[in-house]
Amino acid sequence: MPNEDALLEAAAISVADLHQSHILFILSQFDLVVTTFVLLGPKKTTLAKSAHATFEMSSANKLTKCAACGKCNDGQKNCEECKLDQALKDYWKDRPQPSDEALFETPPPADECLICMHSIDTWGFVEEGQSWYMPCCGKSIRETCHLDVMMEDNSSLSPCVFCRTPIPRSNKARLEMAEKRMKKYDDADAIYFIAECYQSGTFEVQKDYKKATRLYFRAHLKGCRVATEKIGSAYLQGEGVDCNFVIGMKWFTLAAVEGSLLARRALSEWEMSAGNTCRAMKHLLIAASAGHDESLQDLMQGYK
Question: Which of 56, 132, 147, 222 is the most buried (most CB within 10 A)?
Fold first, then answer.
């Protein structure tokens, strides 16, 4: 919206060529003050319409407050964050839990590194076997493969092995690239990457479990399989949501159906503690067949 000085300057220039001019009134609404000039003379119509159009645009775009959290939004009843929170709470309200038939079917293959073709057990930042997200093109590789590339290239800007875009080694710069990709493409992997940053407090952001869980849910809705397991962990540990074991296990069951080997191993431990040895061994057998080493060790221990 033009400020008052700009309007005064525009009016002064127009008045110089007119015989009569008057400043009529000041319009105000919700503490937004717009000075409107109505000029009497040959050029009065254009400037008056411009001033009124400015005021009408300001009134139409005035911010309202979200009914749920009290924060300002763009005139809608609830902001996007509150809509996601409510959708997460209502997710299992009318949705059936996956059946045993679906649970014990052969799961889809695990994600593979596009360089070494080994499976990526989990996504994260620290443990060997986890993935390294490329915020330029949205692809992921194993952490070990990324370290090999870093050792070969000692420059401050390591090019992406896929699109050759220079990727800064600064954590803050990488996070900014991921945020731009999330806003531009609504990319599920970018959303998941940023969620992990908020969950762990890495990449120079402050820990925020509620925001992390909200982003995990958003990534899940976009088809990110590993985000499903993270939501289950959030419910089991009470991070960002109210602690709820039943809801957490529903999310873990859904994650196992989608192919999460960690979620399947967690289900085997829960079934074992409940005395359901047969079901627990089935979970371990499926996870071990998919290449999960820890599940294989548990399976061998169970047969001793």
Answer: 132
